[in-house]
Hints:
Elements: H1 4-36, E1 42-46, H2 62-77, E2 84-87, H3 112-120, E3 124-129, H4 167-180, E4 185-188, H5 206-227, E5 232-235, E6 270-272, H6 286-303, E7 311-312, E8 316-318, H7 332-341, E9 346-351, H8 358-377, E10 379-384, E11 393-398, E12 402-408, E13 415-418, E14 426-434, E15 438-440, E16 443-446, E17 451-457, E18 467-474, E19 477-481, E20 484-489, E21 492-498, E22 504-512, E23 534-539, E24 544-545, E25 548-549, E26 561-566, E27 576-583, E28 590-599
Parallel strand pairs: 1-2, 1-9, 2-3, 3-4, 4-5, 5-6, 6-7, 8-9, 14-18
Antiparallel strand pairs: 10-11, 11-12, 12-17, 13-16, 14-17, 15-16, 19-28, 20-21, 21-27, 22-26, 22-28, 23-24, 23-27, 25-26
Amino acid sequence: MPNFSILQTYSTLSIMRLIYTFILVNLLFHHVYSQIVPARPLGIYVTWGAHDQLSDNVKLTDDIINKELDQYLTLRNYGTTLDYFLIDMYWFDSANGAYAAFDPQNFTSGIDPILDKCKQNNVTLGLWISPNVLGWNDKVKWIQYQDKWADAASKNKLQMAMYTGSYLPEVIKNMQMWYDKGIRLMKLDFVALWAAKAGDETKYTELQIRKMNEDALYAALTAFRKKNPEVVMIGYNGFDTGTKPAWPDWVSEKEIKTSVNPKWLDVLHAMFCGDPAFGRIPTSSMWRSMDYYSDQMLREFHFNKIPLRRIDHSSFFITNTGTGYWRKTSAWKAMLVLALSRGSYFNTYYGNLELLSDTDKQWFAHAQSLYFEALQSGNTSVWGAFPSENQPFGYITKTGIGELFTVCNPSQSFKKITLPVNTLKYKILFADKGYVPAVENGQLSLGPEQMAVIGLNEYAQDKFVLGVEEDIIIPKYINPLAANFTRTAKNTYAGEVKCTAKSDIRVVIEFTDSLGKAVNIKSLKDMTPMSDNIIITAKTLTKNIPVQIKHNKIIWSGLNFVCVELKNTDLSGVETFKLECKINHYNKYFIKPSVYEVKY
């Protein structure tokens, strides 16, 4: 017969070993996790947008750094949480190795005075670094090639292999030098995981080269973080799997195109999900379209198992330069509220802080403190559909005292949305101007394109109210109209629109291929407005009708839709008019038009 006492003793010892192993693994995991995820949300200012050498010609200088640093300190004095001041791309001397020194032409006094100023004001600095890309092409090159890197250089000498050669070790060495000087945040951007040393492209497959580069960079960053525990590293362009197209094909949650490997979160503190761009969702407000783009990309990363807390959505841009489309402060409050609502612990603020008035800075601090305090004591989750599905979506931050419900209606119709919590205590804390959202029988009504924040339970107090977004006006009435558009020339469509009542007319035109897939249309030339390329006109037999154009902007990312409006005062006496859409250089495209009557 079996000796049950021995089995019982063995079982007990095995269980104890399992328990101790579980505790040890969890302690080790907690140690690593606690190192890489901050205990609270971070505020990170980034200089890009105040300068812009890629889609504009505004150079980074020590004058710009000092101006924005002064604004940073003022914004912080109003109560805004700002933990890092990151000096973005083009700070470096392009001829002096791989990020070994600041540019002597634009930093005439060197970096030491700025380092001293930061130390005196308790400001922690960050730097932009590309691990292995010298430039995109011969015209856009930010690091000058040197022969000492031949042991890593690709055929065109613009990318460096990281699995071999001296380039990556030199980058890491210089990162260490800057860490020793007090730099604590590293923005790692433009990573070419597909880069092969010249000749290796015939020895290895693309997948093998990518795997070798991934392993080399992963190991280098792991060692760097282990040696420098205070460093924070955020991964930007290039850390996805390489399957993401230049412009995402948005369909639905079941057909996500972006693919991101969560393993990078072992060494990176956060991952970036996309530059500001105009999304696939047609909107009357161009800026709201940009908001929705960030929402969509965030959802795609989250679908790939990237926690909301560790996604840098880089969606807050107030700029006088091209990357941010010269947005300045247009609809900036809604942009900030949506950015805060997404639940990230890595909140980046780009551009010209001087565009914010003192009153603006106070409001900024108020909005940020509301969400930061809620996020630190609670948890944020996504709610509703993917933005691309044209149905209501948003975010819920739940705490011990209540909920902040931030919700968007991307459609061109009114929606009723059931509140996520059954409570009699609620208050509209923030909304776009125009149509006033209302709650009745537990349902929230939202106008077309409208976003709102509802405070539930203890958040339903006046002290949490954020007010109104003045720059986005939501109609109080919208109704679809029939319209039949046909191709009238190789690159032109036209249709007849009937006017009804005393309403404005809104026309949304989406551009597709023959299969209905979105076509992204760009300008004929750089630095020219999209309205020079996508031309919308309206006329009767006897007169031209003024058209309010929203796309008269220089848009580097292109557009797959336009939205125009005609005012009822200009339509007086008009029963029908002809609307024409012409694109100067796209021949193989189709249009998907939608026409509405709207009243504000």
